[in-house]
Design a protein that fits this description.
This protein is mainly α and about 300 residues long. Helices cover about 80% and strands about 0% of the residues.
């Protein structure tokens, strides 16, 4: 069982991303631009629908918009698969150079697309099963609590433990299946998920450390930038919705009204950050794959 070299993997991911930023831009700008244009129209229409209310003050979320959102996410998954495969091949030496533009849809991209969609379905299924279990336990517990007041605290503790255990299990499974599935799909010619599970055995916490070191700085930069773009009123609306769930629909309308005129700025921020985000997101597992599959992680400049 190989151990993931945490420091080397993090250093290699950052070194590749900033050292080959031109190549990354060439590899991703076409799918990134397509995704941005789609986001502009789809989310603009969705936010517009959210601002229209029915007679009872509820947002009007018409079926066509939900269908368009689902179609958009399918296309977005495919575009992400293209970028993931391109960057992974660049890291692993399966392609080289600094392309002006790149667009490819082959078997590797389709395998990665299938893996992304499978992970999404697995997440939804896991969440539904978990929710059903919690509801059943809650119903049984409330029934028992009516018969004995001493049971109520135990039921609350059990539901809390189930929530923590379920959330932890979901994270563990998702990390093990997803971390190396892209390079596995590219190199091994397989679906990738089972190979990722095999290679990541005994490395869960190392992967968590690597993921935090790579993504936390980006999330911080993006979060601060979005705060200045959307303003404090947007985030205050979230806080009000949590404090007053009965009026959540009104707060949803407020949020849509705040977001709508700022969509171009949000998309512009996404375009600026895209090369760094995609580079770190897909270079990290590619370097990790080289180590866990029995190949040394290269140092900067190799």
């Amino acid at each position: 069982m190989n151990k993931l070299p945490v420091g080397e993997t993090i250093g290699s991911a950052y070194g590749f991303t900033f050292g080959q930023i031109g190549a990354i831009i060439g590899l991703i700008w076409i799918p990134t631009l397509i995704n941005a244009v789609g986001s502009f129209f789809i989310f603009g229409a969705y936010n517009g629908a959210m601002q229209q209310t029915s007679g009872d003050g509820m947002p009007m979320m018409a079926g066509p918009y939900v269908g368009l959102m689902f179609l958009y996410f399918l296309v977005a998954f495919l575009l992400v698969a293209m970028m993931a495969v391109a960057i992974t091949k660049q890291v692993l030496g399966l392609r080289s150079g600094t392309p002006f533009a790149y667009f490819s849809l082959g078997s590797a991209e389709l395998r990665v697309f299938g893996g992304i969609f499978a992970l999404y379905l697995l997440f939804v299924l896991f969440f539904l099963v978990f929710a059903i279990v919690v509801v059943v336990v809650g119903i049984v517990g409330s029934t028992l609590a009516k018969q004995s007041a001493a049971v109520a605290p135990l039921v609350g503790a059990l539901v809390g433990l189930l929530a923590i255990a379920g959330f932890g299990a979901m994270i563990y499974i998702f990390v093990r299946l997803s971390f190396l599935f892209v390079p596995s799909a590219v190199v091994d010619g397989e679906f990738g998920l089972s190979r990722s599970w095999q290679l990541t055995a005994g490395n869960f916490w190392r992967i968590v450390v690597v993921g935090l070191a790579v993504m936390l700085p980006l999330l911080l930069v993006q979060g601060v930038s979005e705060y200045f773009i959307l303003g404090p009123e947007y985030f205050n609306s979230f806080a009000h919705a949590m404090q007053d769930p009965t009026n959540a629909s009104r707060f949803s309308i407020e949020q849509a009204q705040i977001v709508q005129p700022r969509i171009p700025l949000l998309l512009g921020l996404g375009l600026i950050l895209a090369p760094i985000v995609q580079g770190l997101l897909f270079a990290t597992p590619a370097f990790a794959y080289r180590a866990l599959a029995g190949r040394a992680v290269p140092t900067q400049g190799s």
